[in-house]
Amino acid sequence: MPTLSALAEAAGDALVPVTPFPPSRLVTGVHVSELAAPGRYLAGGELLLTTGIPLTGRDSDDDYVASLAAHDVGALGLGLGEGWDAPPPGFADRCARAGVPLFVVPDGIPFLDVSRALVGLERRLERDAGLRAASAHTRLAEAAAGEDGRAGVVRAIAEAVGGWAAWVPAPRAGGTALLHPPALEGLLPSVVADIEASLGRSGAGAASFSAHGSVVLALPVTTGSGRVGALAIGAGRPLAPADRQLARTAIALLRALAAPSASTDASTAGAWIVRLALDGRASAARDLARSSGVDLPPVVRVHVGPPDAGAAPLSVVDGPLRVTLRGADDVPPIGATSVPVVWEDVPAAADRVRASWFAAIRDDPDVVPAVVEPADRATRWLDALRTPELRDTVRAHLAGGQRVEHTARALGVHRNTARQRIAAAERAMGVALTDPDAAAELWIALRRVSR
After folding, report:
1. Is the full-model pTM beyond 0.70?
2. Which ranges in 186-279 belong to alpha helices (H)?
3. pLDDT tens across 132-190, in order?
4. Under DSSP, is residue 228 helix (H, G, I), strand (E, B) or coil?
5. Hey, how many other C-beta atoms are within 10 angstroms of the C-beta on 432?
6. Beta strands in 284-353, from DSSP E residues, in sequence order
7. Collapsing DSSP states into helix, strand and coil, what is residue 177?
8. What pLDDT does residue 19 have?
9. Burial environment of residue 288 by CB neighbours within 10 A (0 to 12, 13 to 18, 19 or more)
């Protein structure tokens, strides 16, 4: 969020300070009002712009300034040229006593110039934050691939948020709790108790609370066998969206470290890149590849096969399968291979080809088949609807204008049953029927196969 000093610098001649102001005060927005009592429309922290219509130049101005201070206005900007050619007599002193910084917008300069300065500053701050976040994602992945990956992740996330972080293993998983920085290790017993109270007994998917002078975010780390631990991060400020994104990357890395195959496959950058991509962290995967000198194709095929199928640069053993990310033209002779997808779609493609592989070996596990997804995605979606019930549900739902009541009536079932079948069909296909492009392609495909 921009500071008052940064906004004053960005606005230049459009915003001239009259009274001293706290340079680090955060500005939440720019609001224009000529009301005598605009406080009810303010959320706090705004730069309020006015041409001075509510001002009188007399003692009654005390009430106006006091109202702004009571509603925590960030600063007041007085536009000159319409009502006042300079601040009213004594008005600057009134603002200074109330702690409301006073600026003037010179005659002839539109208020829009101030708003544009704030928007430009916010965009620049977002861009800078994105660059810092990309670097932090890379440091997290590099730390996970180090000698003590778990401790490295805890240290890297603590440094990235400018606070502290803790790893707390689940009671049944065993292991040692960690906290960084070491100077705060005395907090560890209470952090463990807080996590067990917020996640262990409640089973919540995440928890946010205030403790130890910090705003704390606690997230569980789960594998196929359940919760193996939790990550807690704390800072003496509200955690920003970028902090939460970093926490999710850290969770993905801790989950990979907890996987049974992590010790054998996590030693190369390529394996970590695959693990991040499978966990939906495409941006972090690209950052790690860039820092490790690994060239990534813009689109990849997701391939699964037996664990002994042979390692590749972008390959990792994930449970009973080896998962490999290959170039768009690389289709191995065995295993299940997806259509080319962008990195953001790797998790969904991996789910599809896993399902295709297990379906192919269901009848004869000793046979190593070759399964390649059809390029036509509508055909792929229909293939995913493996039961007539799901296919009929999709057909009825699309034919009825995607109104659940009409779908239920056409199928002769309760509307809650119809909702459950629609949700099951969407999960199987990996696409929402509310997507108009997907719905159109599916309808044409259904009409084609019903002829």
Report:
1. no
2. 188-195, 241-258, 262-265, 269-278
3. 666 777 788 778 777 788 899 999 999 888 889 999 888 776 778 899 998 888 888 88
4. strand
5. 11
6. 299-305, 315-318, 321-326, 335-337, 341-342
7. coil
8. 94
9. buried
